[in-house]
Each structure stands twice: as C-alpha cells, then as structure tokens.
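Why does residue order matter? Because the sequence determines the fold. Keep that principle in mind as you read this record.
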Amino acid sequence: MFCSQKQKSKQSPLPHSVAVLLLLFFVLSSCGKLVKVSPNHPSDTDNLRIRVNATKGNQGLLDYTGDVYVHLGVITSKSEHELDWRYVKFTWGSRDSAALATPVGKNNWEYSIPNIREFFGVPRDEKIYQLAVLFRSGACIDVYCKVLRNLDDSDILIPIDSQPSTD
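Structure:
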C-alpha cells in the first residue's frame, strides 16, 4: 500500500449503538409524568391529591398564568361505556371556587379530593373504576377553554381501587 492511499477503516458498530442507547436513556429519563397522584394507588375512600405538569401531555396549559380549574367525574360500574363520566362535579367553564386548582410552581397545578366516594356521592353498591379529570383555564369563551389532557387529547383517567361495601 502506498502512503498516498487512504486506508479504509472498518468502524465498529459498537460506538454508534452505545450513542443511540445513551440518547434513548436520556430521552426516556427526561420524560416525566403528566399526572402524579398521592397515594399512588388510591382506593375509593382515600383522600386524593392530584398534581399535573403542563409540560407533559397535550401541553394545553403550557405557560398559562391565569386561574386553573378542574372538571371531575368518575367512571363506575353503572357507566354505559368506558368514558361515561358520572357524578360530574362543577359545570364546564364555570369559575366555581371549589374547583380552583392550586398553582405549584410554573406549569404545575394541584387539586385535592377528600374521600373520593363521599366527594362524588357514589352509592356504596356502585364500584368506582376510574377518576376522570381535566384541568382547564378559567378564561373560557363560551365553552371553549384551554385544557390539559393526555398527549392523544384523551381525558385523564386515574385508576381507583374500589371495594364496594355490602353493609
């Protein structure tokens, strides 16, 4: 081989694979959750704290600085389908002070529900499967509000462990 010729170097695929894996790790580790609940696996009689992060999901409230309200309901054993909200709290678009979420830093809001079953007035013989929740702007025009939802624009659903009492 002459000195002027460049030798083809065979590059190992390992460095490329490692770079891809590292990138994937950093992307996945930077992904947080849209919703955090406390306790993590709530039962129907628990006091529940819901916190949302507007940098996640559909980002419908990203950088929103006005009042944020919740719209709440439950999916139960008597719901007609999996998205049939029952015992809905608060009128859509209203500025009911009881529906006001608490800001927790930029792009984060929190709302607490004391005893889920009692809050919604669900009879003891009806099983609660999920809590349905939307966080929305207070500045609505007619019924059109900025709304924080899942990435696919679906409603936020929180699984509820429900053991109906037979008392």
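Residues 1-9, 18-30 have pLDDT under 50 and may be disordered.
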